[in-house]
Amino acid sequence: MDAPSYDPTPELIHRDSGLWTRVLAASGAVNPLSGAPFTEAMLAGLGGGIGFMVFTFAYKEVTTASVVTRFHPGPFVANMLDRSGAGVEVQQTTSARLARGRLDSVLDAGRPTVVRVVPAALPWRKRTLLTESGSTDVVVVSRDGEGYLVDDGGGRLERIGAGELAAARAQSKADKHWQAHVGAPPGAPLTPGVVAEAVRETARALLSGEAPAGIPAGYGKNFGIRGMETWRSRLLGTRTKGGWPVLFADPQRRRAGLDMLVALLTGPEFSGPGALRPLYAAFLREAADPAWVQAAELYDGLGSRWDGFAAAVGRQQDADFTAMAELLDGIIEEERRAATALLG
C-alpha cells in the first residue's frame, strides 16, 4: 500500500522540485526559515531556479531543437538538496542485487526514495526522442507485493515490477542504480545567506558570456542571455547552415523540431509554465528580501511573455522564424533587466 503521508495528487510545476517537495514533506523535513514544509518554489530556487540553453543537432533522419529554461547544466538537484540542509543520503552501485536490497531497506523504514531511470523504460511512458535520451528522477513510494508504487509526477502512483524497475534504473550508465532518501544527518542549515548565494549563482549564470563549468568554451554562446541572443540570430539566419530557416527548410524536419521545442518549453522536465519565471518569482517573494521585489515583478511579466512565445510556436504550421525572433527580442531585454535586478 502507498504511504499515507505521501500525496502524489497535487499538480506540480517543475518535476524535480515538485517531486522532492513531496519526498521531504513525507520524510518530515521542514524549512527552518519558515517552520513549515518546503515549498516547490523554495526548492526550485535553491536548485538554481531558472536559466537558458539552446542547441540544435542535425541527424540523418531528424533535426532536434533543444531549449532548456531551468538552471542548466549545473547540478540542479544536488544544489537543491545540499542547500536545503535536509540530510539526504545518496547511494549508488553497479550491482542490481545490492541496489534492490538498499531500496527495500529504506522503503521498509517508511522513507520514500528517489531513483533515476530512463523514462522510456517505464511501462506507462511513451517512447519518444526525449524519453529515450538521458535519465530522470522518480519517487519509489512503497513496496507493493513483488513490485513497487512509483510517482513520476503524473498525478497518481504507478505500479512497476521489480525487474522492470531494475532495468529502467540500469539503462543510464552515469546514473545506474542511483538512489537518494532523507536519512543522513542534517547538513548545514538553510539560512538567508544560503538563499542569497543561490540567487547570485542564478544571476551570474544568466548574465555571464562564458561557458558553464564543464562545457567547452566555444559553447558559451548557447547559454544564458547570450544564448537567447544567439538563438535570435539563428532564427534570422538564412545564409548559414546553423540558421533555422536553413536547418529546418525541410517541412518534416521543421515540424518535428518545432514539436520538440514546444514539448520542452511547456513540459515540466526542462521547463514549465512561463519558462519557470513565475515559479522563480514566487521563490523570491518567499525569500522576503526587499532587494528582490523588482526582480520578482519582472519575472512574473516574463512568464506571460514566454507562455505567449510557446503558444505562438505551437500554432505555426509553417514556421515564421522572423516572428519568433521578434517575440524573443522583447524577452531578451526583460531577461537582462530581471537578472541585473537580482544583483541589487
Keywords:
344 residues; alpha+beta; 13 helices; 8 strands; 46% helix; 2 domains; Cathepsin B, Chain A; 6-stranded antiparallel beta sheet; two-stranded antiparallel sheet
Give an account of the 3D structure.
Helices cover 46% and strands 14% of the residues. It is built from 13 helices and 8 strands.
Structural class: alpha+beta
Compute the separation of the termini in Å: 50 Å
Total DSSP helices: 13
Q: Approximately how much beta-strand content do the residues carry?
A: 5-15%
Can you write the helix and strand succession as a string? HHEEHEHEHEEEHEHHHHHHH
Query: Unreliable stretches, pLDDT < 50, 5 or more residues?
Result: none
Tell how many strands the DSSP assignment holds: 8
Total individual domains: 2
Main sheet: strands, sense, barrel: 6 strands, antiparallel
Cross-sheet strand order for the largest sheet: 3-8-4-5-6-7
Rounded to an integer, what's the Rg over CA atoms?
20 Å
Shape: globular
> Percent of residues in helical segments?
40-55%
Mean pLDDT: 94
Quaternary structure state of the chains depicted: single chain
In short:
With about 350 residues, this protein is of the alpha+beta class.
Map the helices and strands:
Elements: H1 15-26, H2 40-47, E1 50-58, E2 63-70, H3 76-84, E3 88-91, H4 96-108, E4 113-117, H5 129-132, E5 136-144, E6 147-151, E7 158-161, H6 162-170, E8 179-182, H7 192-207, H8 224-235, H9 244-247, H10 251-266, H11 277-287, H12 293-315, H13 321-342
Antiparallel strand pairs: 1-2, 3-8, 4-5, 4-8, 5-6, 6-7
Helix pairs in contact: 1-2, 2-3, 2-11, 7-13, 8-13, 10-12, 11-12, 12-13
